[in-house]
Amino acid sequence: MGRYILRRLVQMIPLLLGISIIIFLVIQAAPGGPETVFLGQGRFVDPEIMEKYRQRLGLDQPIYVQYLRWIGAALRGDFGYSYTAARPVSQMILERLPATLELMAVGFVLAAIIALPLGIYSAIRQYSIFDYLGTSFSFLGIAMPVFWFGLILQLIFAVRLGWLPTSGRITVGNTGFGDQVAHLILPAVVLSLRYIAGWSRYMRASFLGVINTDYVRTARSKGLSEQRVALVHALKNAAIPVVSIMALDLAGLFSGAVITETIFAWPGIGRLFIQAMFDRDYPLLMGILMLGSLMVVFFNLIADIIYGILDPRITYD
Amino acid sequence: MTNSRLQRKQQKALPTKERTQSSIIWRKFRRHKAAMVSAAVLLILTTMVFLAPWIAPYDFDEIDLPNRQEPPSLQHPLGTDDLGRDLYTRILYGGRISITIGLFAALASTLLGTFLGALAGFYGGAIDNAIMRFTDMAISVPSLPLLIVLSSYSSAAIPIMILIIALLSWMSTARVVRGAVHSIKQQEFVNAAASIGGRNGYIILRHIIPNVMGPVIVGATLGVGGAIIIESSLSFLGLGISPPTPTWGNMLQDSQATMASKPWLTIFPGLAILITVLCINFLGEGLHDALDPTLSNRG
Questions:
Q1: Is A293 on the interface with B (CB under 8 A)?
Q2: Nearest-CB residue to B237 (from A142, A155, A274)
Q3: Which residue of A has its CA nearest to B132?
Q4: Which one of A16, A26, A151, A153 makes the best mutation probe of the B interface by having the most chain B beta carbons within 10 Å?
Q5: What does the pLDDT look like over B142-191, one tens digit per residue?
Q6: Is there a domain that residue B16 lies in?
Q7: Which residues of chain A have a CB within 8 Å of the CB of B278?
Q8: Contacts from B188-194 at CB under 8 Å and sequence distance 24+?
Q9: Helix axes B209-236, B143-151, angle to 10 degrees
């Protein structure tokens, strides 16, 4: 197992380098090049001054030199300076990271504690009304545009009923725990919806897949209670594919957070990203894209490792 | 059982009509009620949307300031927006663009994914390695943020939106097709085709692709819904097709500010997206059941 993880970690290196090239090229493709943003924002700038700035920023070098400089610094955790804030990108990202991680973690846990029991119960009571309602709900959840769902929840619970705050992470001047929780509810629900929908369907399908196997029948014929059969014997195997899908989806939560944070003015990385996009703050955009890719690659590895731990049929060597 | 009854029963069991591949698929599809209803709804919706210039009660940019921000009424079944433009009309016109982008983006990404996947699966070796490693990279960059960056580069026109969405959503098709082609390639009928002198391109198009069409069609169907959601998300962020041309996404773009007093401006365009994508997903589910030969062939 240890050797497997080590091998995977080594394999991640070329993958991440390839990703960094893609990201770098995408940013280079910006119309007019990054320096026009840094300097002129459309205004006329003396070509001589422009040239000086280009030299200072290293933008007069060939593109591969620029890339090597960027990736070399990035490997040491230095993603350059933000064009607009004139502060280190890594510092700005680290500042915003806790808010995003908090939202992702709460959304993830919320999705798990709703989706898994929902899926299991739907499978046990297959073709019952509950099952139909659950299936309809998951179809709705998968088809729902995230940003619209957020708007509708805001409309109902914040604007009409006034139960929850519309946006933000805390009320200024209020540092109470209850206030923080109230701010978290709507964004977390919005972020978790599609995972509740997806995971409950996976859980249901996976559970139905094991419920008619011989070993479950054996457990039943030993006279075990239905509850014990379902929750101990069947669940153990049914959970394996679901858990690894959940780990894979953790990375997708990052993309979801971009939209969710924008709607709810949540001060995390997603919102920083949108702001950087409008400011055309390219070093910041590159840093955030790299962080997002790193998360995807990392959670893919976690998913594979979990799969190997849970399923003894899989051997790594 | 008497002899004559037995005979009659045997006769009955004989196929009266030839059961072609497509008739079997149609039979199986018809049994999926949700998919049938969804197909009907989509047909009606698409027809209405593409006939918008003829059936819409107003022009999509017909400004009527005295009647602006009207709630739904008989004159304006879904109300009017902040310039007095009829919301029902704008949803019809907006649907034209949203659905067009969805269809063509899914088509383009399916073609690209099938092409790359077939290439990788058929030739194997270095080509396979190169294509699949590239797929791994493309799938590891969070696609929504990358889409946001790419679409911020230009004031988006419809073909550009289609291209950008397609460029970032071909990966799963490529993986599925590669796997399927890889396993089909080793079967006898492919060897047979090669042994009578079939060229590679011919074998791929004629013998291999038809056998992987099932999952590809299902993926493409779901891709239409996915692309509609992506388009609307980008438009919502102000990066899609820009006003005054309506799309379902850009109609929602400004609605957040006026949501409290004019909720209909938020509710109806989103509902249009939800219903369309929901029906597309049901359709995909029905097609999946109908096209999967491992599920019962009897209908």
A1: yes
A2: A274
A3: A15
A4: A151
A5: 888 888 888 888 767 888 889 989 988 899 899 889 988 888 888 888 88
A6: no
A7: 139-140, 143
A8: none
A9: 60
Chain B residues whose CB is inside 8 A of the A303 CB are: none
Q: How far apart are the first and last CA of chain A?
A: 7
Band (B277; pLDDT cuts 50, 70, 90): very high
Give the residue on A whose Cα is nearest the Cα of B138.
A19
Q: B187 phi and psi, to 5 degrees?
A: -85, 160
Question: What element of type H or E holds B256?
Answer: helix B255-258
User: Hey, is the C-beta of A285 within 8 angstroms of any chain B C-beta?
Assistant: yes
Q: Which residues of A touch B233 (CB under 8 A)?
A: 145-147, 259
pLDDT band at B14 (very low <50, low <70, confident <90, very high): low
Instruction: Give the number of domains in chain B.
Output: 1
Q: Which two tokens stand for residue A117?
A: 């029991």
Contact B121/B182 with Cβ under 8 angstroms? yes
Asked if A146 lies within 8 A of B233 by C-beta distance, the reply is yes
Residues of chain B found within 8 Å of residue A280, distances taken between Cβ atoms: 152
Query: Does the pLDDT at position A252 exceed 60?
Result: yes
Tell me which residue of B290, B243, B234 sits closest to B105, measured CA to CA.
Answer: B234
Q: Which residue has the higher pLDDT, A77 or B70?
A: A77
What CATH number corresponds to the domain at position B99? 1.10.3720.10
So what's the pLDDT on residue B187?
Answer: 83
Q: Residues in chain B whose beta carbon is closer than 8 A to a beta carbon of chain A?
A: 133-134, 136-146, 148-150, 152-154, 225, 229, 232-233, 236-237, 252, 255-256, 259-260, 263, 266-267, 270, 273-274, 277-278, 280-282
Q: Give B273's contacts in chain A (Cβ within 8 Å).
A: 145, 148
Contact A50, A95 (CB under 8 A): no
Nearest chain A CA: its distance from B297 CA (Å)? 21
Domain span at B161: 25-62+75-291
- Residue B13 located in a structural domain: no
Q: Is residue B14 part of a domain?
A: no
Count contacts between A and B (CB, < 8 Å): 117
The answer regarding whether domain A93-310 maps to CATH 1.10.3720.10 reads yes
Quick one: pLDDT band at residue B10, thresholds 50, 70, 90?
low
Judge contact between B76 and B70, C-beta under 8 A: yes
pLDDT digits (tens, 9 = 90+) for B62-95: 776 677 777 777 677 777 777 767 788 888 888 8
- Please compute the mean of the pLDDT values over residues A147-164 and round it to a whole number: 85
Q: Report domain extents, chain A.
A: 2-74, 93-310
Nearest-by-CA chain A residue for B259: A155
DSSP string, B79-142: -B-TT--BHHHHHHHHHHHHHHHHHHHHHHHHHHHHHHHHHHHHH-HHHHHHHHHHHHHHHHS-
Considering only CB atoms, B278 lies closest to which of A27, A31, A139, namely A139
Which residues, including other chains, have CB under 8 Å from residue B236's CB and lie 6 or more apart?
A147, A259, B249, B250, B252, B253
Q: Indicate whether B231 belongs to any domain.
A: yes
ipTM confidence score: 0.82
- Distance separating alpha carbons of residues A105 and A97, to the nearest angstrom: 12
Are the C-beta atoms of A83 and A279 separated by less than 8 Å? yes
Q: Which of B146, B256, B274 sits opposite A26 (nearest CB)?
A: B146
Chain B hits for A277, CB-CB cut-off 8 Å, are: 148-149, 152
